[in-house]
Automatic annotation (TrEMBL):
GO terms for biological process: proteolysis. It is a multi-pass membrane protein. Belongs to the peptidase S54 family. Its main location: membrane. One of its GO terms (cellular component) is membrane. SUPFAM superfamilies: Rhomboid-like. This is Rhomboid protease GluP. Keywords: Hydrolase, Membrane, Protease, Transmembrane, Transmembrane helix.
Length: 348
């Protein structure tokens, strides 16, 4: 009950400009917290009480205390009676035997705080009842949205990519006998980009290197980035195009790294930069729908990440650039091309 009272007071304050006050005593109420609002010259106080304790309110001393504290006799006390058992069924209140209607006859609201429903209000407080009901419905809406977000799961392709990367990192850590740092020989064994080996014909390394990582921090940062941007690209382009963009960007990153960097290279960041490139194309193609601000934000993220990359040692910046270019080109070419899955969705 206390949580409900605090939540409703918070919403009344934020939406309808009520103020929260602390009462000097509880006066038989369920909370020492109340909501106050000035209307013309009158001060209105909304107080909260358990319906089961409704007949024990010391309303006389409550009003005297408020008048003394705020130095005015022009006050109104709206009593919010809270119950978890009382319900409205077919226009009849049920759940409490021998309900005393007298306690809610004047300046009263009757609420089931578990269900978040207004059951009754006296005619003299209709405007306050409407405000209270809106605030309560807003809280119910927020609860519903929170439940929906909890039910939401990662899109299938993004989930598969993250699981694949994490699985291969576990294999790398076991072979390296180190959870935090990957052994360079193990990475080479598993398919890292090594120019001399690619020249000898091991071209598969241009693909496999994008699923390997050099340490726990490395994979954590990359998987967080994939978790953040992957679902958006998967939804915007569809699963098939998303896979094509990701793989093509990763391979393009490896090719750039092969031609412009001699070091051993691993990591999903090239493919992730490709997803940023796809986001840029999306913002350009949909600028009338999403606005120019969205494009500016994407450009800012790309520029900041490139600057960070060039500022840190042992970062394959040519791989990042290659992935970004690969993502831009691939998503541009795929834009408007209907994949089989998209066609099936529209004809289903």
């Amino acid at each position: 009950m206390e949580f409900f009272i605090k939540s409703i007071i918070e919403k009344l304050c934020s939406i309808y400009k009520y103020a929260v006050i602390e009462l000097k005593s509880n006066y038989g109420l369920s909370s020492i917290w109340a909501a106050m609002k000035k209307i013309d010259e009158k001060l209105v106080f909304m107080v909260f009480v358990s319906l089961e304790n409704g007949e024990n309110i010391d309303e006389y001393n409550l009003k005297r205390s408020l008048m003394a504290e705020f130095n005015t006799t022009n006050i109104k006390v709206v009593k919010v009676f809270l119950s978890q058992n009382l319900k409205l069924e077919n226009g009849t209140l049920v759940g409490i035997e021998n309900f005393n209607w007298g306690i809610v006859a004047n300046s009263s609201l009757l609420v089931n705080y578990i269900q978040g429903k207004m059951l009754f209000y006296s005619s003299d407080v209709e405007s306050f009842a409407l405000e209270f009901n809106y605030a309560m419905n807003y809280i119910n809406y927020e609860k519903m949205k929170l439940k929906e977000r909890k039910k939401e799961t990662l899109p299938n392709v993004t989930k598969f990519l993250i699981i694949t990367n994490v699985f291969l990192y576990i294999i790398t850590a076991l072979l390296s006998q180190n959870l935090f740092y990957s052994n360079i020989n193990v990475l080479i064994f598993l398919g890292a980009k090594v120019n001399t080996l690619i020249i000898q014909g091991e071209y598969y390394r241009l693909f496999t290197c994008m699923f390997l990582h050099g340490g726990l921090l490395h994979i954590t940062l990359n998987m967080y980035a994939l978790y953040a941007i992957g679902p958006f690209i998967e939804k915007a382009f569809g699963k098939v195009k998303y896979i094509i963009i990701y793989i093509t960007s990763g391979i393009m990153a490896s090719i750039f790294s092969f031609y412009f960097s001699n070091g051993v290279s691993i990591g999903a960041s090239g493919a992730i930069f490709g997803l940023l490139g796809a986001s840029l194309i999306f913002s350009f193609k949909m600028k009338n729908q999403v606005g120019k601000g969205f494009m500016k934000n994407i450009i800012s993220v790309i520029v900041v990440n490139l600057i960070i990359g060039f500022s840190i040692a042992n970062v394959d910046n040519f791989g990042h650039l290659g992935g970004l270019i690969g993502g831009i080109i691939t998503s541009f070419l795929l834009w408007g091309v209907k994949s089989k899955s998209e066609t099936n969705e529209k004809t289903a």
